Amino acid sequence: MRFFNTGKSIKSNPLAQENENKALDQNILWQEIGMSDWISGFIESLIDQERFNKEVLCFIQKNQSLKCKELYEQLPFSNKHYKKDPDKQTINSMVLQGCVALKKRSSKEMIFVHVEKAPNLRPISVPEVEFSVIGPKEAFNENLETNLVLIQKRLPTSALQIEFIEIGQRTKTKVAILYLKDIANETNVKTLKERLAGIDYDHILDSSYLIQMIEDNKMSLFPQLIDSERPDRIAASLIEGKVAFLTQGSPHGVYGPVSIVEFFAAFDDYFVTWHISSLFRIMRMFAVLFSIFATPLYVSVITYHPELIPDDLLSTLTTSRTDIPFPPVLEALFLELTIELLREAGARLPTKVGQTIGIVGGIVIGTASVQAGLTSNVLLIIVALSALASFTTPVYRMSNAIRIVRFPMIILSQFWGLLSMTLGLMFIITHLLGLTSLNRPYLAPIYPPRLSDWKDSFVRLPFYVQKNRPDQLKVQEKKKISWWKKRDIDEFE
Amino acid sequence: MNLNKSKSPPFVHKNARIAHKLVYFLIVGSQIGVGVLGFVRYIAKYVRQDSWIIVILGGLSIHIILWMMFKILNKHGGDLFNIHHQFFGKWLSLPLSSLFIFYYLVTGIVILRTYIEAVQNWMFPGIPIWTLSFFFVALTYYIVGKGFRVVTGIAYFCFVLTIWMTFTHYFPIRYGHFINLLPVLDFGLKDYFQAFKVMVLSFLGIEYLFAYYPYLENPKKAQKWAHIGAATTTGIYMLTTLSTLMYFSPKQLQGLTWPTLQEWKIVTLPILERFEYVGIAFFAIVVLINLAIALWTSSRGINRIFDIKQRIAIIPLSILLFATPVFFTTRFKVDELNNIIGKFGFYLLYAYIPLLFIISLLKKGEKT
């Protein structure tokens, strides 16, 4: 028997129940409560001693003579439970949640009172991965309750539904599913709920575990759900009609269904004027294309089609490549791997050392390898630029995927140059076409072509233009706004 | 094996269907093939400067055939295999439908082999046929294995990614001479008919509609888009023909195998010296959609007639698609193959479909 903090009971996984360690009650500290025949049982580290002493003990002290049931009724706690004859397992699981078990020595009845210790948590901090210059600077932390509050504060509507389930046989991780009842498509909600409920795994330590377990295509390189550390982003996605979930112990909320273009939209885009954000978005798209295709293009053009290069550029390229002992493909792979190494080293080290490594490594290795005649400086520029371009993708998972896609493309371009690159491109497109996110097409506003959704995809048009929610989500209530009325010339109110 | 499967109209799950507007991309994607790189020479052989008239006539006739096809399909429902069953009974429909499956597959083989020919001539002279064919078929297998929606998606992307290539005709038209198009109507009827017959090969592709018709969400509305698609194809062919005729003199044209590729040679952009390599590479996309539709329709046919799972049917079909091009080793053989399929397609479009149309007029429609 387990409960959420709100008092709702959780249906336990039958398998988990079986595996429950029955000998565990040795950890429970059974104590007598002074001058009475009451005893209490709890695990010291889980409960708030002070609160227990002040509130529970004092109350019992005053009302010693009451019977168990009566005491239960009078206890000034909202989150309390009464069990007539609990078995060992129930006691265990209740106490492990941070309850105090109260019992009269003479009877078998038991009262459980939630007095768990407020966990010592990281305070709400500034978003680090999705930092924005303008706009709110709150990020989720590791506590589910805090995270829920952050969202509920933004959506004070009764339509906001929060449903809890418990996943993970051993970790018993609480997961909250959120959606707006009058907007979100029921099938989407059902899909997410069913998939989450279908997980039978022993430990869930982060929401990224869940993402990988419920994605439509688990073999795919591309992420099919977005995780965000920004409560405002999650709230906005809920309002769009998406479904989200938060996981206990994870500073990331996850939402879906998403389409691929959303991975290139930073939440920052909504805080600046639409011209600028549209420009940024288009720039990011080009950055992605550049990041995937620039190096392969260099390899294939230099290897197979030098005829493509205009005269003036050709001399630059040839001078930079005259003394290079390697074929372009090896040169490119060498540099790309170097950049990946630098990135990985930077990511593993503490921030300050990491920055130094990045700069020193970048400059020293880059310059040295050019001077040593191992790589051409043109390629160095291309590789560095494409690495830089891959970092413009706002969603970390996506930028990872894009970095990886580049490598097969480089190898492919060695086969037949542009021709095999085209085939590679078509392979990627086919793969993306086949992907779905919570059973909704992944490439959505592009294919199936839904022009009305383009207003908030490659570009972000002004808010008053975006009158409807995206077609892709098949929401219940399509209209977003209805207040906008265009003024005629010389017409005033 | 249930040979009676085609007796009943096909059931297509609503998630597998495509929006009716997308038929536009399917029609354009399946009609335009490698032929667009060299078809002008074949028509110009007979009618020289009047080739563009043939293109218009061909385009118009395609509209009539398309209209007939929609009439038949709308009236009797289902697909070609079902209609064969309705019209000719079980045992006669079997060879007929099988012939269609074979034809669908061969169209794929033709386009693949012709494209490899172009690659061998222009990009990589020494490339073994089987390597290219293997890569193409593997990718086609991957596409078809993902279902008809993805095939349509590829058609869409094919259109989006390659439509800009029509603008390259600006260069030959700029350097061309309008006088090359004159005098108009200078040939005998027989020449026009010969040219028309040759032209049909390039317009082939609408007959796939017979197989994927049940996949359209709203077939009646789709007709409009199919016609617009056919018109787009005619427009693109028209532009190609005009630019080729204006740029090359008739005699020079006869000496070229791939006039469009030759034209691309003069396309120069500030960042691009020679365009034809990019052009050929991008044409892989056009080939791919043709292959995908051919493989999909033929496997679908096997599924409909012999009741074999489509996922299983595509395996032998793709092996055939991969292996057959290897046997056409010379330019001559490739041309022969093109001629045969062109003739077959001609009779298919202008004899068989009208015949079906007449039978359908006489028969009572089956309401589904």
UniProtKB/TrEMBL annotation, chain A:
The chain crosses the membrane at residues 285-304, 378-397, 409-433. It comes from Fictibacillus barbaricus. InterPro entries: Spore_Ger, UPF0353/GerABKA_families. It holds the Pfam family GerA. The keyword Metal-binding does not apply. Keywords: Membrane, Transmembrane, Transmembrane helix. Belongs to the GerABKA family. This is Spore germination protein. It comes from the Bacteria.
TrEMBL record, chain B:
Keywords: Germination, Membrane, Transmembrane, Transmembrane helix, Transport. Coiled coil: none annotated. InterPro entries: Spore_GerAB. It is a multi-pass membrane protein. Pfam families: Spore_permease. The keyword Acyltransferase does not apply. The chain crosses the membrane at residues 21-40, 52-70, 91-116, 122-144, 151-172, 192-213, 225-248, 277-296, 308-328, 340-362. It is found in: Membrane. PANTHER family: SPORE GERMINATION PROTEIN A2 (PTHR34975:SF2). Belongs to the amino acid-polyamine-organocation (APC) superfamily. Spore germination protein (SGP) (TC 2.A.3.9) family. This is Spore germination protein (Amino acid permease). It comes from Fictibacillus barbaricus.
